[in-house]
C-alpha cells in the first residue's frame, strides 16, 4: 500500500528558504510522491511565493497541485 500524505505535516526547516528548498524537503519526507510534489505551487500564509520567504512557528505553508479546467 502506498504511503499516504497527511493533510498536515511538520518539518524542521531553516528560518529562511525558497520554493525549491521547501519542495525538496517535502519530497524527501514523501519520496513516493516526489514528481507530484515538485510540480506544486507554494503558498505561504495564503500568498503564492517563488523566491525566498521566512518561516516562523505559526507560518502556514500550502502545496497547491497542478489543476486544469475547462
TrEMBL record:
* Name the UniProt record assigns to this protein: Molybdopterin synthase sulfur carrier subunit
Organism domain of life: Bacteria
One Pfam family, short name: ThiS
InterPro entries noted in UniProt: Beta-grasp_dom_sf, Mopterin_synth/thiamin_S_b, ThiS/MoaD-like
Q: Which residues form the signal peptide?
A: none
Amino acid at each position: 500500500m502506498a504511503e499516504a500524505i497527511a493533510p498536515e505535516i511538520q518539518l524542521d526547516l531553516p528560518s529562511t528558504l525558497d520554493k525549491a528548498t521547501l519542495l525538496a524537503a517535502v519530497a524527501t519526507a514523501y519520496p513516493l510522491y516526489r514528481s507530484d510534489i515538485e510540480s506544486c505551487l507554494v503558498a505561504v500564509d495564503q500568498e503564492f511565493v517563488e523566491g525566498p520567504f521566512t518561516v516562523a512557528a505559526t507560518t502556514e505553508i500550502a502545496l497547491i497541485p497542478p489543476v486544469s479546467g475547462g
